[in-house]
Records
---
Amino acid sequence: MRMKMFVYSLREYDERQFFDTICGELGIEYDSVPEVPTPDNISLAKGYDVINIITCPIDEERIVKLKEAGVRLIMSRTVGTDHINKEAAARYGIPVMGISYSPCAVADYAIMLMLMGCRKLKYVQLRTIGRDYGLYGRLGRELRDCTVGLYGGGDIGKTVARQLSGFGCRILICDRHPDPEIAGIAEYVDPDRLLSESDILSLHLSGTQENYHIIGADEFACMKDGVMLINTARGLLIDTKAMIDAIESGKIGFAGLDVIENEKGMYYFDHEDRILTNKDFSILNGYPNVIVLPHMAFYTEPAVRDMVVNSTVAAKGFFDDKEQAND
């Protein structure tokens, strides 16, 4: 069987070349649009075996229309699949898959945010724009003097630990499945110790319902005053109201956020001439000690290539396996 794939949210300027190459090599027929799937354009996928998407919402209404269009697999070229209503997909018999990609992309970004926080870079930039080149209020700290806590020890968390080891800082990590290799460079601890002992807390957990608001008011109360909070994972991990309170009280000294709650529909689009309705984003973006970035920690050439290639290969493997099982 020659698999047919319809790609939504395809970016001409970086993804197209990789889709053309891998689909040509595997003999896959594909078409695409730059838009996200909507109830109005899902009909474009009629006759295709799989849709390939990024972090756009796929709710029950869209799943019903995908079923009617004959789509047999939802493939997300992302690690997380929390943007898809997997319960509804299961009810309608449509499997959902995600993929992995270079963990170095997000790991590098997380460490970049740590360094920006250590050197108060947003505040320095804001003052420099106003031609204030003084040193007052800009005294930084060195990463080697910090205890860095990593909440989550999957591929990305472990990569952060390996890369941080070169800075000479103390590294704590909290994960249910300790890795003996990582134990040589980081100390595995329980959540209580992670929260209470970390100068910098970096989140690397999946966006599951179990992890919803895993960092809230009670957790902030356990942290050091002036703690640095880094989130390059999923916005739902943090209770935003509690985080805003912690910033304003001084509990959080710096926050580096590549993701925030309720970001869907905002990131990856040009809103230059529009009023943004995400009030939390506007509040967070206004603080001199908070950096809010548009969910792009993944965005490197190797990672984009991995996302395209791995999602396409995985989709083909899924249908190849089904064919073999039916032989």
---
Amino acid sequence: MTTPAKRLRELLAAPGILASPGVYDGISAQIAAEAGFEVLYMTGSGVSLGTYGMPDVGLLTLTEMAESCKRITSVVPNPVIADADTGYGNAVNVTRTVREYEGAGAAGIQFEDQVTPKKCSHLSGREVIDTEEMCLKIAAACEARRDPDTVIVARTDARESLGIDEAIRRGQAYREAGADILFLTAPEGEEELARIPREIDAPCLLIMAWAAEKLSLVRLAEMGFKLAVYPGDLQRISAFAMREASKMLRETGSLEALERRMLSYPQRFDLAGYGAVREVESKYLPPE
């Protein structure tokens, strides 16, 4: 049987670049899967903002994030790479984090080298732990896997405070420690971008922001990137739409002007798998 983790490894080994949207709850995951994305990315910022209404500054716990992951993986078959922040503590905490995330269905688990509490990569003032400490956390994560196919993603935020050379050096060290995918935040300029996959012998993940947002997937694939993630785009557009619709509803008492652009009530239920529920009802419930 091909598990989501094994499928993720197959996709990583195949030619080409993978585009992955940031999802944060059941319906965002279902929409992304329906659109045809093969790999989904559970964004920690999206979960923090979308599920709890709080900024992504390290306020959520392991259990809250693992539960969010389970909500996503329970409704889509796609491999999900799940943000696990700093692992919620030291290497001992990382061990439990891996097992909780595997239990929640994550095919890949992302750890970062920030100090605790961490900050979203779009915020300034991020500080990082020592390289050695992060390498030990990665090694602990690898050893804690119950499924050897579970993919470990290592993220470094060193570029902001220590420069691109140190960020790349850390990426190389994290690969040696056992990380399967490397992720360097906040590169500046196309030259820095090109150095990342060229100098790190591993599949590299890139957030489509900073220097990357104006480059095509074709160009990024030519550079050697394997994963292009759009972490906040679905949430940004949905929040914009909800804000505008809320203002219209408050001011006019109706959304009739938007009706043709909205999902119908049946479409909304179909998206969430109501058809499968009806099949079970027809098979196992007595006739009315």
---
Amino acid sequence: MSKNLIQQITEDFSKLPEVAAFVLAGSSTSGNDDAMSDYDCYVYSDKEVPVAARQQTAEKYADVMEINNQYWETGDEWQDAESGMIVDIMYRRKDWITGELNRVLVDHQASLGYSTCLWFNVQKSQILYDPSGWYQTLQSTADKPYPPQLQAAIIQKNFPVLRKTIASYAIQLKKALKRRDYVSINHRVAAFLASYFDIIFALNALPHPGEKRLLEIVPKTCRVYPTDMLENVKILTTNISPEEDLKVMAALNNLTDALATLLINEGFTI
């Protein structure tokens, strides 16, 4: 996406009275983009931006478009006719994002996986339009050291479900392998990895960058991470079938053992 196109889109959204802030985020601002990356823009407002106005804006640039998607966040996706780039524009309420930041930075609430992704999203956003300075203030709120209470909460919530609890991912995966339940196998591996990487980023006091390219990002950004992580994640994700159940469970146990050792060495009780 050219700088000129970004400026044009920003100008279009700045003319809509409902828009309080317009920012660029995602891989293009975090430094993790590649040739397959799209462009993530976020519109913040106190009330809904009219769908008709959003469609009119998209039609200036795109022949292929999806307006008012409701699959994840409310959003519009379209392909810029000139460059072929995919533009993903998501719409958020100001009070919602403020509440989500408070949830982790003030209340120190953890999730099962991806606890701090929205914090990372706000930190790494590039402000394109912010006439009142509201988003700049929000970013200032997000620009703070990683709370130790949040770090502990994420580890305490996510580590037990890897293998320790009665309904842990390890136990559920073992059952799914025996049942030859391929969908459940995939689901449990994904859930295990979501919690696993949530712990790694918390341990390193880093906001979570999201699900993509984690095996590249962790070695570049994390001070510590489990030994043989890359090898065992590859085994876990490329052998997820009942026919390879011993390899799958061995990789999961190797990952968990190495993480447990690391947490203990870093002073955490597990």
